Amino acid sequence: xxxxxxxxxxxxxxxxxxNDNINLMVEPGSIHAILGENxxxxxxxxxxxxxxxxxxxxxxxxxxxxxxxxxxNIAIHNGIGMIHQHFMLIPELSVTENIILGTSNNIQxxxxxxxxEINQIASYxxxxxxxxxxKDLPVGTQQRVEILKALYRQARILILDEPTAVLxxxxxxxxxxxxxxxxxxxxxILFISHKLNEVMEICDxxxxxxxxxxxxxxxxxxTTPQELAEMMVGxxxxxxxxxxxxxxxxxxxxxxxxxxxxxxLGISTVRGLSFxxxxxxxxxxxxxxxxxxxxxxxxxxxxREITSGNISLTPPDNQPAKIGYIPEDRQTMGLIxxxxxxxxxxxxxxxxxxxxxxxxxxxxxxxHHAENAIQAFDIRTTDAQLPxxxxxxxxxxxxxxxxxxxxxxxxxxxxxxxxxxxxxxxESVQECLLAQKEQGAAIxxxxxxxEEVLAMSDRVAVIYNGKFVEILDADDAxxxxxxxxxxxx
Length: 489
Known about the structure:
Elements: E1 4-13, E2 16-26, E3 31-35, H1 42-49, E4 57-62, E5 65-67, H2 72-77, E6 80-83, H3 95-100, H4 111-120, H5 139-152, E7 157-161, H6 169-184, E8 188-192, H7 196-202, E9 205-210, E10 213-219, H8 225-233, E11 252-262, E12 268-278, E13 282-286, H9 293-300, E14 306-313, E15 323-326, H10 330-334, H11 341-344, E16 356-357, E17 360-361, H12 363-376, H13 393-405, E18 411-415, H14 423-438, E19 442-447, H15 450-456, E20 459-464, E21 467-473, H16 479-488
Parallel strand pairs: 3-8, 3-9, 6-7, 7-8, 13-19, 13-20, 15-18, 18-19
Antiparallel strand pairs: 1-2, 1-4, 4-5, 9-10, 11-12, 11-14, 16-17, 20-21
């Protein structure tokens, strides 16, 4: 008997075919990965299973019984629970209140009784402080609350969307222990992720989607990360950045001394931070989100006032200092989505020659510049006048790279440069940055993706509570050691 079976599922939005005759079988008690690039159809398929969308055609079978899932409530009633990447919790409420929210019509609730009921299903390593407010819990514990919430609603099939995106290595390890116990107790888990090493570690079976179609379904033990990546992208792809050591005189390009910076609420989030960054070097910054990374990046880029300390930029060979900044959020900080691709490429040079003469934009020059950037950075469009909002996340990131890297900057600040990108787009971004390193750029590479930081960097700084608790040579920076420092400072 299969826990979930999809037959000929198709879904279109206008002319765009998101799911194209998808067939899928998921065994009970298994952990089944769903892989694919952005736009491959993963999210649409999960929304169909969880009742958010209805298919244009096709059937869904639960325990071999034909089932119509016409709403999220029907999905929950049929034992399907979805744990989203961005948790659906109310921070000001307690754990118990969050778990039972929407499940009882009683005006007066007996929270002690409800907590006792929750404790009965928390035997999978899901122990959480039921009286604590969600806002006071670490991210990993909040995720446990989300899983408990689904189990409290009698979910037998759990859909986890990028479940490790914001977790530390120790929290990932704890999550995997929970998932294994759930699977052993005949829960069925759909695991959506772009982290191939995690898929290989935790999953039994994997289905790869590409352009809305199922490319392959295979047992994890019968494949490799490289094979999965190539199935996802449809071509040979480098899943490990090919970094090289640059034979340059290691001149200091950036010196930061005793830096203190406040966030938007006036709270100090960078505290007494010091480091040096050299020509032709990538210094990776690893840490859990919210430990001062954004404020550090903004202050070095000159976008945020510092409270105290000193930032000095010394370009080699007495050349003018140039900073390229790849911001954390490409859609709100990096681009004006309503502007064309061509105009987004000159956001920092609107008033400068050759794009502007006597106060008038030179459209022919701007368009020619855009056509060169499309070619050089493999931006997947032929229309330089297309508004940026109509491009994929990977192509939006390539616009920012083209703008920020085209002047061969002395210093590059890359803040979460591959966040939300698929394998192909990630490879492209990393290759661009490594090429800049080979030309002598100093790069501050800030990411919550620990494996990515380790693969890209010459040295790794671990940030905790606004400080660099240790700076390690790449050869000495293991996942275990850096993960411990990220969690404990």
